[in-house]
Amino acid sequence: MQASSSNQVHRSSHRLEPVLSKAGWLAFCSLLTIACVVVPILHAALPTSSALQIPTYAVTILGKFACFAMAAIAMDLLWGYAGVLSLGQGVFFALGAYAMGMNLMLSIGSSGVYRSKLPDFMVFLDLKTLPWFWRPFDSFWFAIFAALAVPGTLAFLFGYFSFRSRIRGVYFSIISQAATYALMLLFFRNETGLGGNNGLTDFKNIYGYSLQSDATKVALYILSAAGMCGVYILARWVTTSKAGRVLRAIRDQEARVPFTGYNVVHFKVFAFTLSAMVCGLAGALYVPQVGIINPGELQPANSIEMAIWTAVGGRGTLVGGALGAWLVNAAKSWFTVVLPEWWLYILGTLFIAVTLFFPRGIIGVFARSKA
What we know:
By secondary structure, the protein is mainly α. The protein folds into two domains: 31 residues, no CATH class; 242 residues, no CATH class. The protein starts with a helix and ends with a helix.
């Protein structure tokens, strides 16, 4: 009996609460079914004349939003649970996108404008051979690996030296934003071998399938929607574990955590690295759907937008970050067509209003109304 009790205590010490409640699993499975089954059926099975038919361009937009939601969940894991506001998450998103973009460029082969095995921009820049760091990206699976490993490694190194030096709060936010701007300027240079100002574009195939095909676009959407749901479960698994409890303690009372025997640096580096890898995965799924990746994706404004998505939806909830990403980007899609010159003012006003009047975001408003 004593051995059985001790085993139960040992197991429960790692899982402090279920990943999802029964109602939560029901809601999650319903959302997964709608996203991955119902939407494709409404697109493929209904005639274009039907009001319920979802056109191809809308499916692509939904796929983009799902990628943004993945990045927002990663942002919420880092900011909402660990209390680390990074204004450089857009870098990891862009690195994942560049990793996939390099594979897509090499898959063009001799079908480019110049009929060369080299990417068109390299021919234009009079390069004679493929740079050494491009060669492994001929493999699709290496590109997937790099989309996770490169952002993760950069985040691990940057986070370790920053957190070990006790850089935190607004200082970490400023440094991460400055590093983002420096990397953006670096990627603008042709010498990097990544397309310079124009970036990588004119993709034709992914893993042998045409990117112009309707079926490929739907498949990419399904992968993005499934990835969004999978990332949410992963984040819930982390935040409901003992590690998640430690991360919340670091967020609330970082100075006291070392006295409980936990290494603050290790937990913050873990959250930062995991968040970066999720952003890299989101970027890898994003680029084949939009057809281009250039240094503009590294601009600091993109990282700030990720923080706004999380704040609008509600920090420390995970689902709030995803909800904020969907709502803000839906508003952006509408306003940039109807009132393009006003969008940045509206976005800034929204962030200020949420910070002052709704600090817990949309999810917090619903929670308070139920209480």
